[in-house]
Design a protein that fits this description.
With about 130 residues, the chain is an alpha+beta fold. The protein contains three helices and four strands, in the order E-E-E-E-H-H-H. The protein has one domain: Ubiquitin Conjugating Enzyme, CATH 3.10.110. A four-stranded antiparallel beta sheet has the order 1-2-3-4, with helices on one face.
Length: about 130
């Protein structure tokens, strides 16, 4: 998938190391974001476990890298592919949703001063998302 590299761990075929490129025309543009994806024993009946390893400023991703995304929770379907999950996460970087937040402080900032929040997100991208 363009902008997303997923490598299966050689010791554990259920574990993937993923790099997601920050989408263009977003505060995350130019960044390389490390994500870990793990397929639980219940997969595909249960969603994969996914979290960001790279620190980023986003209302739907908390300080531990957990992601607030409906298809990783109640909207999961066994018909969904890993590719779809990763594309949805990349799309979330393009379109943060401060109304369905995971980090309340970031969401408040995003609602009160979107331009300022995007500037912080750009700064964090420069600071934390350039090592791979």
């Amino acid at each position: 998938v363009p902008g997303i590299d997923a490598i299966v761990d050689e010791h554990n075929p259920r574990y993937f190391k993923v790099i997601i490129d920050g989408p263009s025309e977003s505060p995350y543009e130019g960044g390389k974001f490390k994500v870990e994806l793990f397929l639980p024993d219940e997969y595909p009946m249960a969603p994969p476990k996914v979290r960001f390893m790279t620190k980023l400023y986003h209302p739907n991703i908390d300080k531990l890298g957990r992601i607030c995304l409906d298809i990783l929770k109640e909207k999961w379907s066994p018909a969904l592919q890993i590719r779809t999950v990763l594309l949805s996460i990349q799309a979330l970087l393009s379109a943060p949703n401060p109304d369905d937040f995971l980090d309340a402080d970031v969401a408040e900032k995003w609602k009160a001063d979107e331009k300022g929040a995007k500037a912080i997100a750009r700064d964090w991208t420069q600071r934390y998302a350039h090592e791979t």
